[in-house]
Design goal:
By secondary structure, the protein is mainly alpha-helical. The protein has 2 domains: 91 residues; 206 residues, MetI-like fold (Orthogonal Bundle). It is 82% helix and 0% strand. It has 13 helices and no strands. Helix 1 runs antiparallel to helix 2, helix 3 packs across helix 13 and helix 5 packs antiparallel against helix 6. The longest helix has 76 residues.
Length: 366
């Protein structure tokens, strides 16, 4: 009975403290909400500031080039030609507009144009497939290749091609770098033997890797009329980007706690069991750091390699727009630049999520 009375009193004391606890909890939650809102507001303000500075810079460059063109027309052709050019620029006629840094509004218009263009091309593809359906069924039944759509690719198709290429290159880098890194990491002798190889080939330019791969693939596919641009591109990307994973894997394996190795010996684990149950789990943080760097490098070098290989990706798109020199070419290049940056950021976030899922060492998003 006395015990029940004591519990009742303790319960009353806890009930008395409950409003105080709720107040602190509410204040804590409010502080978190305010902190999140503050970070969001700062991000929005910085974006608006960036767009504002961009707009002012683009307008200033536009005026500089417009004034130069008018002054040149005045000097070479006279006042009448200068007045006509001034009126043409003021009217917004595309033929006489200064070709300089586009404004945010022009880039947004180009993005909408590219999306609309994608919808038109998608409809054309669907119409072609439907039109050739019967013919292709007969060709396939005869053991022949079906007729495929060979029209121009849309901007979305180009982006997807680049993503496919970078993932193929990343997978190649992973398959080469991780096994070699494990073997090198397990043996100090092999680390010393291969160190010169890594140090020499790691800083080689993507252009040189492309040329090397081109020499080899061209010879292996000699006499083959098929387009090898994709094969050359993803192999070049993989070879150029794999070094961070190779070095980090070797470093992670070589730095595994010796106590873990001793436990594996006591348990009489075989070589493969030791690698997969002890060494790899302990090395995962460093391996994934290398993989994140590899994926970032692969995405960066992809643009140059696609340009050289003439692969239908973002690299070739940017180069063709630059050479095209149309009124909206600069805007499309800026669109591609933002797409490249956003996809690169998303790829890094995906790798971070995977790393935190499979590794015991959780990382803050940076």
């Amino acid at each position: 009975m006395g015990h029940n009375i004591t519990l009742k009193k303790e319960g009353q004391q806890i009930a008395f403290l409950k409003p105080v606890t709720n107040w602190f909890t509410a204040r804590f939650q409010k502080a978190n909400v305010l902190k999140s809102l503050r970070k969001t507001a700062i991000t929005i303000v910085s974006i608006l500031l960036f767009i504002g500075l961009w707009h002012l810079g683009a307008k200033a460059l536009y005026n500089v080039e417009a004034d130069y063109k008018i002054e040149k027309a005045l000097t070479e052709q006279g006042q009448q030609a200068a007045d006509a050019l001034t009126a043409c620029i003021a009217a917004g006629t595309s033929s006489c507009q200064p070709n300089t840094l586009p404004s945010p509004a022009q880039v947004w218009a180009s993005l909408q144009s590219l999306i609309a263009d994608h919808q038109v091309i998608t409809a054309d593809k669907a119409a072609f497939v439907e039109k050739m359906k019967g013919v292709n069924e007969k060709l396939v039944a005869q053991g022949k290749d079906a007729i495929v759509y060979t029209g121009r690719a849309s901007f979305i198709d180009i982006v997807l091609t680049s993503i496919k290429t970078v993932f193929a290159g990343f997978l190649l880098a992973l398959l080469i770098a991780v096994p070699i890194g494990i073997v090198i990491g397990l043996s100090p002798t092999l680390r010393s033997a291969f160190n010169w190889f890594i140090q020499i080939f790691k800083p080689v330019s993507p252009v040189v890797w492309y040329l090397l791969v081109f020499m080899i693939v061209k010879t292996l596919y000699i006499g083959d009329s098929s387009d090898n641009a994709f094969v050359i591109s993803f192999i070049s990307v993989g070879l150029c980007a794999m070094w961070a994973t190779l070095v980090n894997t070797a470093m992670g394996v070589s730095s595994v706690d010796k106590d873990y190795i001793n436990v594996a010996k006591v348990l009489k684990l075989g070589t493969f069991q030791k690698v997969f149950k002890v060494i790899l789990p302990s090395s995962l943080p460093l391996i994934f750091t290398g993989l994140r760097i590899t994926l970032s490098v692969a995405w960066m070098v992809l643009i140059a390699i696609e340009l050289l290989a003439q692969s239908q990706g973002l690299g070739l798109f940017v180069w063709e727009e630059f050479q095209n020199g149309a009124n909206d070419s600069n805007s499309k290049i800026i669109v591609a630049m933002f797409v490249i940056g956003i996809i690169g950021f998303l790829l890094d976030r995906i790798m971070l999520v995977i790393q935190n899922t499979v590794s015991f060492n959780k990382n803050e998003a940076v």
